[in-house]
Amino acid sequence: MRILCLASVFGLLGSAVSQPASADAYFSTELPVAKAGLLANIGPSGAKSSGAKSGIVIASPNTVNPNYLFTWVRDSSLVFKVITDQFTLGQDTSLRSQIDNFFTAEAALQQVSNPSGLVTTGGLAEPKFNIDGTAFTGPWGRPQRDGPALRSTALITYANWLLSNGNSTFVTNTLWPVIKLDLDYVSTYWNQSTFDLWEEINSSSFFTTAVQHRALREGSALATRIGQTASVGTYDSQAANILCFLQTYWNPTTGYITANTGGGRSGKDSNTVLASIHTWDINAGCDATTFQPCSDKALSNLKVYVDSFRSVYPINSGINAASAVAVGRYPEDVYFNGNPWYLSTFAVAEQLYDGLLTWQSVGSIQVTTTSLAFFRQFSPSIATGTYTSTSPQYTQLTSAIKTFADGFVEIAAKYTPSNGGIAEQYDKSTGAPLSAADLTWSYASVLTAGASRAGIKPASWGASGLTAPAKCVPNPGPQVSVTFNVQATTQFGENIFVVGSVDVLQNWSPDTALPLSATNYPTWSLTVNLPANTNIQYKYIRKFNGQVTWESDPNNSFNTPATGGFTLNDSWR
Length: 573
Ligand SMILES: *[C@@H]1O[C@H](CO)[C@@H](O)[C@H](O)[C@H]1NC(C)=O
Ligand SMILES: *[C@@H]1O[C@H](CO)[C@@H](O)[C@H](O)[C@H]1NC(C)=O
Ligand SMILES: *[C@@H]1O[C@H](CO)[C@@H](O)[C@H](O)[C@H]1NC(C)=O
Ligand SMILES: *[C@@H]1O[C@H](CO)[C@@H](O)[C@H](O)[C@H]1NC(C)=O
Ligand SMILES: *[C@@H]1O[C@H](CO)[C@@H](O)[C@H](O)[C@H]1NC(C)=O
Known about the structure:
By secondary structure, this protein is α+β, with helices and mostly antiparallel strands.
């Protein structure tokens, strides 16, 4: 039996209490420990975050093997979503100044010049900063494009509460400009490659895409609510494009969501479970377009993901195939030799608790061919169909799924040390805590799983009734306006065109070259949008009577700026 001595850790309780293994008992003792552990990691006055600026969330107080004494935009935003939910749902009204501090800290971080750029040139996707709010300049997996999306989601939750409580001035004048920077970033850059949430793979990542989609939907709704409608059309059209892209991660043959589009792994990844819980919207029911927790796709994916760990962790051996097991980030993980993670384990429980609440709200469970294997774990003879809440099948399935979900909590409980502190990982052979101690995100994961188990539903974000467009439209990313001016004397019937090294310049194809106009003859001109921050090679060509004449070598070359416009003043060569 482990002994939980809160008094020595956070001074909350006066006496030592035992920590039994049931999910009920675990949450009743662990939730206050997790809350205190999370607050201890927030500056300026957190007990374990000495040196952190006001509102800055440290990832962990651990400074060696690994050194996590930094602030990540992703982790901080997920942590502040928990805090903001607790505040806005009226569970803890003391948290407002924390949220105000977070807002002030993040608004300052947005403006810090960093290796990803300036606020206007891509700097918003910088993944982590020093805890005094200065840039971290060492090598890192950057950019990470989930940060701005998650930060805006946390702040939008707060903004909506303020609006409902008569404080629209602060929202419009102070919060909105900061939220808008993040939303504009997402809207422009969502279709550029990104490092995933584990900071390892540079491609596209399901979690990133899912949270980007959510941010633009609720950002559009907020903008409309406060009458800042200039960007609403852009947010809506990009959200639709993202939702279209989101569908492409689903692999119908294998029945799971491929977490990243690159990296050479199976793609079975906690990334997908985290995406489902962080985009849960009970009003969307079990909608599979947004991969809601009880959607057939998310459930099928959950089974494949969980099962992928049954044979890779020694602590899972001997556990029967329909029971909870320890789970980690992805089965091929080698970080610290590859172990289960607490936040991944709580996330599985949370997806199922979210699902249980949603089935209750919908009034039925639907079993489809996609989710059949998931449900057969709990009822081997269940058939596809809809089981209303009054049916024996509904009662049996929901009860077994609750037990299964609690099983994941009980595994985390079993490997939680006596002081209730939660690290990043637990050893795959011994279950002992590993890697960073007191990981703030781990504590957040306890709180969100516990809240869902207790029936708490975060505010809707507009996932209900969405359909993905049939055809995906890519987004070219940040563009700048470039004017080509070339002095060229021509004979009647002869025209000047430009071709070059990027799509817009037709990838050097003379057949589809872009025509310039001679309104200021002999200057021929054309203005086009080209990718920002890019080296462009180009040449002018003449076309006369079907004959193409190229400029002489070498190719012309220039770098587009990060923002604004650029004018080229050339002479035909
Ligand atoms: C609006 O909210 C902000 C942030 O908490 C606060 O500083 C301000 O005093 C509030 N204004 C009113 C009128 O309540
Ligand atoms: C960009 O979007 C297109 C269309 O949805 C998709 O095929 C492509 O993989 C995306 N690329 C990135 C890096 O997001
Ligand atoms: C990430 O991948 C993209 C597309 O393959 C590539 O252009 C970019 O240079 C890569 N970024 C880094 C930091 O490796
Ligand atoms: C100009 O660019 C084209 C396309 O990349 C290339 O084939 C050609 O060799 C280049 N010309 C010179 C002189 O480098
Ligand atoms: C071309 O001319 C315009 C107008 O005089 C000037 O602003 C611009 O800087 C010139 N471009 C280059 C590349 O020199």
